Structure formats: structure tokens, C-alpha cells
């Protein structure tokens, strides 16, 4: 079965420490589920296809047998062989990974990182887990769409199980099911990630389908036409959560272009995206220089061989994209909801900079949300400030804004900063404990900077943030040009120029 999970994270990625990007650029991608990406400020987590049921959206805002184009790939070593030949690829012998003898001590391994001459980045880590996870990360988010192909990335992430040159839609679905594997596609405004997960002995099987989906899609016209109605359903389900609409409107209000593009297809484009447009988008964005192949529980040498043979099919820089321009505006959606949802943001810092780390600490000073189920985060400064306000939207939003203003005036103790740093480091390390979070972090860094910073280096950067830097981050928010999105019964909700 295929399932769709939607997620819409925030404009400013203050949840995790910043990753490095090119100089002067700001991050536009925020990973609430697990990753994030280089580029420009802002960002949202998108949607993904997985196994069988619909998952709830989540977001955070500053608001109070198949074969690939090369056929069958074998990543394991040993004896045995496939009984069949696939599309343009010589079958490799299938073998099982030898089990470690009882009592053998397994030593922690270091991440192996390689950048091929064609620009493709390969990273792997042996974590000794019973399940392996492999991801192909591509700079192909919605920011690379233009006015003529809006919504293409949305349809593309829903098309992960369509027929390819080496496997039918049916074979992809049943083949992954047969080994208990999982194929998921996640998109943000910056990147697209195709991820497979399976037991170690079945890596070769699911790798075939991963290569097919990423390098040899056919986008048959009748299959694309049948998929179009799913865009409307997908969007309707996502927007059942009011916060999804707030985050999408917030990007549209904050930016003039690129990052203003929604993760979801505009209504007027549903039914109009063609097979040719999908092919054109893939040809211009799925190039070697815009890709990273990351594996956990996979041999690095074999992963390099796979990349050199089967991901070296399309060279060139691909779509360059336009530089995002922050403008600052407001979008209000008056409706009959009993609650008002509102988010206010200002332009942040370049991802990977010391200032971005200061914003991350500031977020945890204010309150990054509860870390336990049904927690209320009563210790956060924002929660305490809002609790003192009335129940009217004007008072609540004003109280939250005034709390940030108080910090910008220097009302911040060293103890508060130390506690915030510890929370930030704990959150980051807990994220890296999961294979999903680790894979996403490695892939995001690989695309953003072509390198990888170990968690120890990230923790040192967090510890280096001074109290004065946190105060300056609050000052930048208070003095910066604001963007605002609000929905609900807005009769008592302030406009952005009233704050």
C-alpha cells in the first residue's frame, strides 16, 4: 500500500542547529519530521509517500525484482544469483551479508564521505542496525518551479510508484511489499528525497526500485492523468490542519518568488500538469551535481560503485533557480473557525552562520514546544506571557510579541541561555538518534554544502553562542520587516502594522 504523510514546518528553521550553506544564502528548509536543506531563509517540510495510512500534519511557526535504468543492483556479497535479466543491466550475484560471530565486539564506525568528479555526493555510515536505509536527495523542491509549471513537484512526489523503464507500477508496489520494505518520497521547498528502508539482506531488491523511480520514470500519459485527482485529495487532507494553510500563506506573504511557491499544486493547475512537464522538470533538476546518495548500514565502496554506474546518467548544473527576495506582507483568511491561527515572522539569518545558531538558542529561550506527550511547555517564556494575557487574539499575539521585545532590550539572564542551549543540544542529539533523522541530516548537509559536520562540531557551535548574540537576534526580529498570516474569525485579530 501507499500512504501519504503531510507535514508543513515553519518559515524559519529554529528547531535544529543551522547547517552550512553557500555564503550569503539563507536556509529555506525546515525539518520537523527529520530535514532540512541549504539555500535561503524560510522553509517547509513537505509531504511523503510511504506505506499504508495517513499521518497527521505537523508544523511550527514563530507564532506564539524490478530493475533500474541499469537493471538489477546487488549491494551485498556472497553466493547465489538472480534468475532473470533486467533492463540494460547485467545481473550481479546475490549474496547475504555474513553475520558477526557471537561475542564479537562491534566498534563504532565513522561516516564515510565522497564527492565524485561529476559533483555527486556519496555518504554512508555502518551503524550495525538490522535494517538498512538508503536515500537519494535532490535539489528539486518547489522553489525551482516557475509560473508555467507550478505544482509539478507536488505531482512528482505522488508519482513515485508509477511505471518506469524497468518496472511497472504494480511490480514496484508489490516488490517492495514482498520484502517488507518501504519507499517514501519527501519534498520541501528546497529538496526532494527518495528513501528506501528494508532488512539488510534485501537491500539489493529495494535498491532496484529506488534506481528505477529516480532515474528511469516514464510518466505515461494515462497514468499521469489518473493521478491528477489525487492532487486535490492530497491538498484537501493537508489543509484540514489550519496550520498547514498558515504556513503556506506565510511563505506567499513573505517572499516575492521561489520560496513563495507552495508545496501543494494551485487549484487552477490541477488536471493541467502534463507528462512532458514532469519529464522536463526531472531532466533539469535530477542531475548528478544536484544529487546526494546516502546510506546507513550499507558498504561505502559498493555505494560508490552504484553511484558511479547508475547515477552518472545526466550531467550539467541543471536549473540554477532565482535568488529569493524577502518582501514582508500579510495574508488574512476570514472563515468560521472557532479559533484564530496566526503566525508572525521576520527575515532570519543565513543558514550555517553563527547568527543562525543564535536564533536557534532564542527559539528555545522563548519555548520550542513540549517534549513529552500532552505536555504544555509551562516553563517557556512565551507560554508564561500568553497565560497572563486575555483570551482575545489581539491580547495574545501582542503578549507573545512583547516577550520577544523584552529579550531584545536585554532582559535575558545567563541561566536562561544555558538552559536553552541544553534544550537545543538535547533536541538535536535525540533527532540524530533515529536512522530517519540521521539520514535526513546527512543528505541535507550534503546538498547544502557538499560536506558534513559531525554532531560534536554542531554542539561546539551551540556552546559558542553568547548571550549578547541571542539578544541581537531578538533585536533583528523586532526591528525587521514583518510578515503575517492569520485565519479564523479575525474580527479581533490585529493587523501586522498594529504590532
TrEMBL record:
GO molecular function annotation: metal ion binding
Segments forming domain Peptidase M16 N-terminal: 122-267
PANTHER family documented for this protein: CYTOCHROME B-C1 COMPLEX SUBUNIT 2, MITOCHONDRIAL, METALLOPROTEASE
InterPro entries associated with the record: Metalloenz_LuxS/M16 (IPR011249), MPP/UQCRC_Complex (IPR050361), Pept_M16_N (IPR011765), Peptidase_M16_C (IPR007863)
Domain Peptidase M16 C-terminal: from-to ranges: 272-386
Residue ranges with Basic and acidic residues bias: 33-48
Any Pfam family: Peptidase_M16_C
Region ranges (Disordered): 24-48
Protein name: Ubiquinol-cytochrome c reductase core protein 2
Organism (species): Ornithorhynchus anatinus
Record Gene3D superfamilies: Metalloenzyme, LuxS/M16 peptidase-like
Amino acid at each position: 500500500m501507499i500512504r501519504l504523510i503531510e507535514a508543513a514546518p515553519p518559515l524559519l528553521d529554529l528547531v535544529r542547529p543551522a547547517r552550512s550553506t553557500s555564503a550569503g544564502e539563507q536556509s529555506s528548509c525546515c525539518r520537523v519530521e527529520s530535514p532540512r536543506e541549504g539555500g535561503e531563509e524560510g522553509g517547509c517540510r513537505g509531504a511523503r509517500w510511504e506505506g499504508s495510512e495517513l499521518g497527521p500534519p505537523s508544523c511550527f511557526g514563530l507564532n506564539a525484482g524490478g530493475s533500474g535504468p541499469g537493471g538489477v543492483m546487488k549491494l551485498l556479497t556472497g553466493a547465489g544469483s538472480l534468475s532473470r535479466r533486467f533492463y540494460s543491466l547485467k545481473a550481479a550475484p546475490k549474496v547475504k551479508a555474513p553475520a558477526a560471530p557471537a561475542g564479537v565486539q562491534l566498534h563504532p564506525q565513522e561516516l564515510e564521505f565522497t564527492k565524485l568528479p561529476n559533483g555527486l555526493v556519496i555518504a554512508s555510515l555502518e551503524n550495525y542496525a538490522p535494517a538498512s536505509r538508503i536515500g537519494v536527495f535532490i535539489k528539486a523542491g518547489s522553489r525551482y518551479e516557475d509560473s508555467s509549471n507550478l505544482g509539478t513537484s507536488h505531482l512528482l512526489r505522488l508519482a513515485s510508484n508509477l511505471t518506469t523503464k524497468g518496472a511497472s507500477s504494480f511490480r514496484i508496489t508489490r516488490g517492495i511489499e514482498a520484502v517488507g520494505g518501504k519507499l517514501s518520497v519527501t519534498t520541501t521547498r528546497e529538496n526532494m528525497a527518495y528513501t528506501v528502508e528494508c532488512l539488510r539482506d534485501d537491500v539489493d531488491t529495494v535498491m532496484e526500485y529506488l534506481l528505477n523511480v529516480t532515474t528511469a520514470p516514464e510518466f505515461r500519459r494515462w497514468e499521469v492523468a489518473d493521478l491528477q485527482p489525487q492532487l486535490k485529495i492530497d491538498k484537501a487532507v493537508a489543509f484540514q490542519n489550519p496550520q498547514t494553510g498558515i504556513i503556506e500563506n506565510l511563505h506567499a506573504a513573505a517572499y516575492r518568488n521561489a520560496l513563495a511557491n507552495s508545496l501543494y499544486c494551485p487549484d487552477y493547475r490541477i488536471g493541467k500538469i502534463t507528462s512532458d512537464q514532469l519529464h522536463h522538470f526531472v531532466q533539469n533538476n535530477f542531475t548528478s551535481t544536484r544529487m546526494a546518495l546516502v546510506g546507513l548500514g550499507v558498504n561505502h565502496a559498493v555505494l560508490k560503485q552504484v553511484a558511479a554506474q547508475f547515477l552518472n546518467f545526466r550531467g550539467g548544473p541543471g536549473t540554477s533557480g532565482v535568488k529569493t527576495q524577502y518582501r514582508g506582507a500579510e495574508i488574512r483568511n476570514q472563515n468560521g473557525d472557532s479559533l484564530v491561527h496566526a503566525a508572525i515572522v521576520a527575515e532570519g539569518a543565513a543558514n550555517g552562520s553563527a547568527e543562525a545558531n543564535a536564533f536557534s538558542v532564542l527559539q528555545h529561550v522563548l519555548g520550542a514546544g513540549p517534549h513529552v506527550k500532552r505536555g504544555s511547555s509551562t516553563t517557556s517564556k512565551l507560554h508564561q506571557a500568553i497565560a497572563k494575557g486575555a483570551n482575545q487574539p489581539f491580547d495574545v499575539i501582542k503578549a507573545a510579541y512583547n516577550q520577544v521585545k523584552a529579550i531584545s532590550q536585554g532582559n535575558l539572564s545567563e541561566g536562561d541561555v544555558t538552559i536553552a542551549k541544553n534544550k537545543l543540544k538535547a533536541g538535536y542529539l535525540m533527532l540524530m538518534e533515529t536512522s530517519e533523522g540521521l539520514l535526513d541530516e546527512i543528505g541535507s548537509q550534503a546538498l547544502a554544502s557538499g560536506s558534513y559536520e559531525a554532531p560534536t562540531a554542531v554542539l561546539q557551535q551551540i556552546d559558542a553562542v553568547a548571550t549578547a548574540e541571542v539578544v541581537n537576534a531578538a533585536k533583528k526580529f523586532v526591528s525587521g520587516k514583518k510578515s503575517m498570516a492569520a485565519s479564523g474569525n479575525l474580527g479581533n485579530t490585529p493587523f501586522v502594522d498594529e504590532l
